[in-house]
Amino acid sequence: MNSIKDAEEDRLQIAYCFADYGVEAEALSTIGDVHRFTIDPKDNPWCDTTHEIDLMEETPAGKFDLWFGHPMCTRYSDMPGVNPEEHVDQIPRARELATEMADHYVIENKPRAPLESAIHLSGKMFNLPISYERAFETSFELRQPPRQTTIGSEGSQTSPFFYSERSHLWWKTVKGIRGDYPKEHVAKNALPLIYVDFITRNYLESTGGSQGVRDYSDYDKEMDQRRAQESNYELDDFR
């Protein structure tokens, strides 16, 4: 009974903003209760509460542990024919909301967006058959994972611009998504949930929320260093 009570007390309170479909709630709900604030919310069973609100005009009440948001990215899109001046820059407002509403925050957008000290994540870093590079501004340390060689050739990677080349299920499995969302949104707008897991793990480790559990992210490097040291010991050290 105590373990159940402890688990309930440990759940974080997450403000999830600018998220009409709320796909990333599937991953965010792993570490806490997800409270969504957005202008045109669609049904989503992974959100604990949903509030229809124009965040450009209003500020939700309450204080949260973590703020996770997707301000509109069209202004910074690299698609041909997009006029940036025709689209609102929501990033300054997102930053204002994030710092006012929560202790820590994550702002996601296109790689060319004016985020502060942004870390970029891409599918190659997680061995996915898509690039899908995105930038993240965070209030906590977010480590940049190494770029890896993806299985298969560069030409075998699929771009969201050509999302119709692959099936709806293919896009869902690549991005780790379980819910039923439109194919175009899954391909073009939803983050691979492995990005969200990586970010929330960094958040927990940076803020002490990992409960002292050993971080194995640098384990192989540490073991290589230990083996190198041991190989240089004198024989007398083992007598």
List keywords for this structure.
disordered C terminus, single chain, 28% helix, Rossmann fold, alpha/beta, 239 residues, seven-stranded mixed sheet, 7 helices
Biggest sheet record: 7 strands, mixed
Question: What is the CATH third-level topology name?
Answer: Rossmann fold
Determine and state the CATH class. Answer: Alpha Beta
Shape: globular
User: Rg to the nearest angstrom?
Assistant: 20 Å
Mean pLDDT: 83
Strand content: 15-25%
Gap between N and C termini: 52 Å
Question: What does this protein look like?
Answer:
This protein has helices at 2-10, 25-28, 91-101, 168-175, 183-188, 193-207, 219-231, and strands at 12-17, 32-38, 49-52, 64-69, 102-109, 119-121, 134-138. The radius of gyration is 20 Å and the shape is globular. It has one domain: 3-Layer(aba) Sandwich (Rossmann fold). It has a seven-stranded mixed beta sheet, sandwiched between helices. Strand 1 (12-17), helix 2 and strand 2 form a beta-alpha-beta unit. With 239 residues, the protein is of the alpha/beta class. The protein has seven helices and seven strands, in the order H-E-H-E-E-E-H-E-E-E-H-H-H-H. The model is unreliable at 1-7, 212-216 and 233-239 (pLDDT under 50). It starts with a helix and ends in an 8-residue tail after the last helix.
